Every structure is written in C-alpha cells, then in structure tokens.
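Quick check before the chapter quiz. The format below is the same one you will see on the exam, so make sure you can read both the input and the output lines.
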Amino acid sequence: MKDKREAIIWVFVAGIMLAAVQGIFGTYIGNATMIIQLALIVLGVAVGFFGISHKDSVTFMLVSLALIITSSMASQALGVVMQIGSSLNAILLMLVPAVIIVGLKTILNIVRN
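Here is the expected output.
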C-alpha cells in the first residue's frame, strides 16, 4: 500500500513539473504542448482512479476545488505574465479529470451504501 501511495505522489509531482515546463517553455516547444497536455490529462486520470481512497475523497475534493477556482482566477489575473497563466492552466488540465473521477467514485460509493 505504501508503494502505491509513493507512486501516486510521484505521478502528481511529475504532473506539476510538466505543467511548469509547459507554462515556461510552451511558446518554444510548439507541437509538443499537445503531447504534454495529453500527458497531464492522463496523469490526472491516474491520480483520480488510483491515488485517492474513499476516506480521503472529501478532503481531496475540497482542496482540489479550491485549487481549481484559485488557479482559474489567478491565471486570468496573472495572465499578464504569460508563463504563470499557462502553468496554472496546465495544472488545471491535471486536476479537473482527477476531481471528476474522484467525484464519480464518491457518488458510486454513496449509491452503493
């Protein structure tokens, strides 16, 4: 169980690092941004499916929703500095699929019980 948790932590860290790379170098890497965006979505799906237990789902949802709202607003407010806005938007690409999957898993657990 500990190995799985550590693997998911590394997946999340890799996603944050990819988001930073896309934000900082997105204008220079051209077509690779699409590959990075797809990778961020896949990492978000992995975190949603495998990384969050039922007991942690409510905390994850609250913190993630706060991050989504903050990142969305900050990317608009800090959009003047293009790299910051792009990095925050890339983080959203990873968080949103994870939140959707954890939300659906939570709903299914509620319906089952």
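If your answer matched, good. The two ends are 24 Å apart (CA to CA).
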